[in-house]
């Protein structure tokens, strides 16, 4: 038996929400989210996304995507799948605590059989949703796509003008580029 020891990501943190994210919609909802720091799943995050999204700055989003890309490339290269991204929300420090966790299982014949059984719907469950256990290559692709969509980027002053919301757009029914060009021409005249 092999054992991997990892640091406790949440130690010494004031974590108010914890998510275990796999990038799958199948059986990924925790109906009992009451009490002290319950672990929430993918569907819980998607449910709260419209009212309490997790925002990242441009640089943080790029760093997260690069880390997920590198880690999933390595894990897929050694045939590992069924991992999760642990996300702790530390609202006191306004920080996210992140790490890839879970049973690091290789995709062996028993996992291949589990994929087939779950995909066929023999033991119940929806047939139109892909199973949580899939090949490492498919798992990597699904995981990357989900992690990219779960966290929203907050535009900054270097973002292109069409990304930055314009407060005047609602009042005057103009797009931001026309307002920005008017502001720029006004600055040049002064």
Description:
It is a single chain. The protein is an alpha/beta fold. The protein is built from 6 helices and 8 strands; from the N terminus they run ββαβαββββααβαα. A 4-stranded mixed beta sheet has the order 2-1-5-6. It starts with 14 loop residues before the first strand and ends with a helix. Mean pLDDT is 76; it is low at 163-190.
Give the structure's gist in a few sentences.
This protein is an alpha/beta fold and 190 residues long. The protein has helices at residues 42-48, 58-77, 109-120, 136-150, 167-172, 176-189, and strands at residues 15-21, 39-41, 55-57, 80-81, 84-90, 95-101, 105-106, 152-154.
Give me the secondary-structure topology.
Elements: E1 15-21, E2 39-41, H1 42-48, E3 55-57, H2 58-77, E4 80-81, E5 84-90, E6 95-101, E7 105-106, H3 109-120, H4 136-150, E8 152-154, H5 167-172, H6 176-189
Parallel strand pairs: 1-2, 3-8
Antiparallel strand pairs: 1-5, 4-7, 5-6
CA(first)-CA(last) distance: 74 Å
Structural class: alpha/beta
Task: State mean pLDDT (0 to 100 scale).
Answer: 76
Based on DSSP secondary structure assignment, what is the total number of beta strands?
Answer: 8
Order of the strands making up the biggest sheet: 2-1-5-6
Sketch the major β-sheet: 4 strands, mixed
Strand content: 15-25%
Question: What's the alpha carbon Rg, rounded to whole Å?
Answer: 21 Å
Give the count of helical stretches. Answer: 6
Low-confidence stretches: 163-190
Order of helices and strands: EEHEHEEEEHHEHH
- Seen as an oligomer or otherwise, the chain set is single chain
